[in-house]
Amino acid sequence: MKYRRLGKTNLKVSVVGIGTWQYGGEWGKTYQQAEVDRILGKAKEVGINLIDTAECYGDHTSEALIGAFLKKDRREDWVVATKFGHKFVQNFQRLELWSAEAVQKQLEDSLRALQTDYIDLYQFHSGTDEVFDNDDLWTMLEKQVQAGKIRHLGISVAKNYNLHQTMAASRVNAKTIQVVYNRLDRTPEEDVFPACIAQDLGVLARVPLASGYLSGKYKPDAVFAANDVRNNHDPEQRAQRLKQVEEIKRSEVPPGMDMATWALAWCLKHDAVTCVIPGCKDEAQVIANARAAEYVSDDHPQAWKP
């Protein structure tokens, strides 16, 4: 595993993290504690130290599964990132809660679910610019930083081109940006990434495998199960994406290299990107994802230098 400095946080994070939306049950599978323990245990074994979750992956369900694992492990070995702003109602339905009072309650609920006294990275989660521009919210959050309940603040932008929130990061003391970035969606390269570099913001690249399309497992005519999130995607767009993946696999992926590994390493080549956070459904995927670190250069601007 290789490690990078997460922007101004100065946290040492593995270049491959682990995303945990799937633990909330919306990807067609209900995870048991023993399964999560094995996945996170394997992640630690291969050097992964960053877990990304959210209060609305289930009703704190993902956080609770992670928290039960952390209780049995060494909490200080992990960088735990979670998010605020939404309340789970049912699959793919959320209530948005952005007042300072509501977010403070979410923070306490997340701390309880995660069974920890502090959160390493607490992220504004896909809110509009209107709710972002709420000084009361950021004042409350800064007080929680001073109290030690939050180590660092971050922003998970809903749109890959959201320059407003990215440019305002330093003003609200946010030190990281989380954004969708992958070989099929390079939008952040135009404006968001330059703004991140200028402010020394750590970047977490979510959906680096484009919801699994970049795994290279699917043909353009692939049919997904009814409870698979990809079944909700526009059929024409889905087929077009899979056709594009087929061409990328033919022309860009080195012979004999696993496409998912290549896709993660591709993201990590950009100077702005600190870490990719793919989801992992089992231990085998953890191992496969971690292999991307083997193809990462040591001369990246954020490479960890003790």
Strand content: 15-25%
Task: List the strand order in the largest sheet.
Answer: 3-4-5-8-9-10-11-12
Uncertain runs are none
Number of domains: 1
Order of helices and strands: EEEHEHEEEHEHHEHEHEHHEH
The CATH topology comes to TIM Barrel
Gap between N and C termini: 15 Å
Q: Mean pLDDT, as a whole number?
A: 93
Number of helices: 10
Highest-level CATH class? Alpha Beta
Characterize the overall form.
Answer: globular
CATH architecture assignment name: Alpha-Beta Barrel
Characterize the quaternary organization of these chains.
single chain
The main sheet comes to: 8 strands, parallel
Q: Which structural class fits the helix and strand makeup?
A: alpha/beta
Helix content class: 25-40%
Can you give a write-up of this model?
It is built from ten helices and twelve strands. The protein is of the alpha/beta class and 306 residues long. It has a single domain, classed as Alpha-Beta Barrel (TIM Barrel). β10, α7 and β11 form a beta-alpha-beta unit. The two termini are 15 Å apart.
Features:
single chain; TIM Barrel; 10 helices; two-stranded antiparallel ribbon; 34% helix; 18% strand; alpha/beta; 306 residues
Task: Summarize, please.
The chain is an alpha/beta fold. It has ten helices and twelve strands.
Which helices and strands, and how do they pair?
Blueprint: E1 3-5, E2 12-14, E3 18-19, H1 33-45, E4 50-52, H2 61-72, E5 79-84, E6 86-90, E7 93-96, H3 100-114, E8 119-125, H4 129-132, H5 135-147, E9 150-156, H6 163-167, E10 174-180, H7 192-199, E11 202-206, H8 235-251, H9 259-268, E12 275-276, H10 283-290
Parallel strand pairs: 3-4, 4-5, 5-8, 8-9, 9-10, 10-11, 11-12
Antiparallel strand pairs: 1-2, 6-7
